[in-house]
Amino acid sequence: MSFISFLTCGLFFLNTVGCGAQDGGALFHAVPPGKTPSSTYKFYLIDDFNAGFGKTKLGTEWKTSQTNGSALKLFSEREDGVKFGGSLAVEYDLAAQENAAVFTPLNGMDASQAQFLVFLLRRKDLETFPGKIAIGLVDSTGRSITIRINRNLKKSWKGPNSDWAEVAIPKNSFRGLDFNQLERFEITLTSQAKPIRGKLVIDEIGFFGPDELVFRSDQDNLIGFPSKRVAQAKRDALLRAQEDQEFLRQIARDSWLYFENLVDRQTHLVVDHVRVGETPGVGSYISPTNLALYWIANVAAFDLSLISKEKAVRNIELSFESFEKLHHWGSGFYYNYYHTRSFRVTRKYVSVVDNGWLAAGLVILRQAFPEHFGKKATELLKALHFAEFYDPLNGQLKLGFDTEKDVFSPYHYGLLVTEARIASYIAIGKGDLGKEHWAKIYRTLPVEWTWQKQIPKGKDVTLFGEPVFEGYYTYLDKKFVPSWGGSLFEFLSPTLLVAEQELAPKSLGKNNTVATDLHIAHARGRKYAVWGMSPCATRNGRHWTYREYGIPEMGTKGYPDRGVVTPYAAFLALATRPEAAIQNLRTMLSKYPEIYGEYGFYDSVDASKGLVNPQYLVLDQGMSFLAIANYLKQGGIRKRFHSDPIGKAVEALLKEEVFDI
Predict the structure, then answer these.
(1) Which domains are seen in the chain, by residue range?
(2) What span, in angstroms and rounded, lies between the C-alpha atoms of 268 and 366?
(3) I need a labelling partner for 103 at 20 to 30 A (CA). Which of 93, 212, 433, 498 fits?
(4) Which contiguous run of DSSP H or E holds residue 361?
(5) HSE-CB for 113 with a 13 A CA cutoff
(6) Confidence of residue 542 (pLDDT cuts 50, 70, 90)
């Protein structure tokens, strides 16, 4: 490709500077002995080639471009610039006055807080290179700038070891590029009057800047960010709050700050998660579920008088403008994840349950603010035709569609007591599927499936003209219909929208309450101070891990109980055991001083070790916030759902059934 600007202000090795740029110094000397740049948080690497050159650190591939009179070959070199891993060897054969390039896509890489573009070149290759070397960057607008390496500075070369030279090009040499969204990195080799042939070895390509470079580059896209890890004053105020409603109102005010501040200032899309404290981070991507929760949270914030109607509508409108730019699959289904700034699809999988939550969000919007979103929400709902995922062989919904493999998932949402029932509610409520689909979903797995946690007992009945086995499990002398993993999330998350407690007192409503009671009893039996196990994020050194947790005996497969408790599970229980849920939250505050931050409760605590994960997930913040709003406003969000034709159609599914528990 051609670059619109070719600059010759020079290459900067270590103490060599030019173009008025700040001195780079020996940047790779910031890497501690025995470590690599990828473990040093001043670096944001494109590639260190320690795993070969098949994939970069960004998941992209290295490619070459050349004219007819030139050729490049790439292969792995065992030698490494920091004596660990490997490097990239570029074998070149160029005719006179020709050029060739090695390049890789950057997929919207955000290096906005970087100070230098850095990499290492093997000294002996560079000293004998007879042509010109240039480094190019391209941003998302297509603007490109190339910097030519000045070989006359070779006497200043110093590197992390004597065999390598460090290159540090100041960021301001690329002035005019949008470093928030970089799309391409390129190395161009050019011959002069004579053909050239040889090898150039390169390593550790990336950016260098302040501590936590990746985080700082992501953070500057957001409207705001928590300033401290523990909000001691807020926690103290909550501990003093005697009245339950004021206790929950304060938590709601704090939790709402996520939706006010952790939003991209340009695209107005809420980010998936953030980490606070010594290892900060931003998950700059969004799912259909996240988007729906953001919309509904704005409705709830209006209900709670935290924002005006005008502000709620404007927030939703701004996010809607970006939402309508997202690429979708099929008739109108959305992919699992998109980058919040570039809109790039980051996971090319279409999830039925995520699109079910998206549809539910559209239902709430057209009921809350019909004059603003009624027409558009209705159009989008019609495009979400869930029959595309229906399997007539068993009457169930497939999990999703993998667009990279071009295949539907071979698995199904086969159990009623999971969060996926929200998709079935929507599909039947819209008329995409008939009521018989509801009857085809297992209450318990068939008794012949002996691998499940226990063989269910129960009886055969007829529901909507279909045979149904109303089975149950038993735990701690209580009968219940199990979920897949035994987490409260599976039992209770649909109650944020669907009035199961009121409309299904002999089936799902009763089961939800029993499940809550069992979680309380289980924690008491294990001598945990608090209760509520569900999928959540936990600390893993400087990083985090999202895992599924539950009570194994309450699931057909059963998620593990590792003593990890998440506050959002307690908030969900406001629909079933509100007094116990509030007391549980109060105990969390008093027992674990680090559980509360500026934006409310953090995502999890290890109840046995007292280890808090200082992280917020929009999914969990959204569920907590909506649960509070429903509790304080007498089910306001649920009432909006049931005011819609889709919600009204759902009611027939809930009133007829009786669980055998």
Answers:
(1) 6-215 (2.60.120.430), 221-655 (1.50.10.140)
(2) 20
(3) 212
(4) helix 352-368
(5) 17
(6) confident
Residues 516, 570: Cα–Cα separation, whole Å: 9
Residue 627's pLDDT band, with cuts at 50, 70 and 90, is very high
Residue 30, helix vs strand vs coil = helix
Overall average pLDDT of the 619-634 stretch = 98
Tallying the residues shown for the chain, one arrives at: 661
Which residues 6+ apart lie within 8 Å of 240 measured at CB?
none
Query: Which pLDDT score, from 0 to 100, does residue 159 have?
Result: 53
Residue with tokens 């209760």: 531
Query: CB–CB of 277/229 below 8 Å?
Result: yes
Q: C-alpha angle 252/253/257, rounded to 5°?
A: 105
**Comparing C-alpha atoms, which of 136, 112, 119 is closest to residue 210?**
112
pLDDT-based confidence at 456, cuts 50/70/90? Answer: very high
Kindly give, in sequence order, each residue whose CB lies less than 8 Å from that of residue 307, ignoring residues fewer than 6 positions away.
Answer: 298, 301, 315
- CA 53, CA 34: separation in Å to the nearest integer? 22
Which of 630, 298, 363, 293 is closest to 495 using CA atoms? Answer: 630
Q: Is the pTM of this model over 0.85?
A: yes
pLDDT at 157 over 90: no
- Average pLDDT for the chain: 92
Burial class (CB in 10 A: 0-12, 13-18, 19+), 84: middle
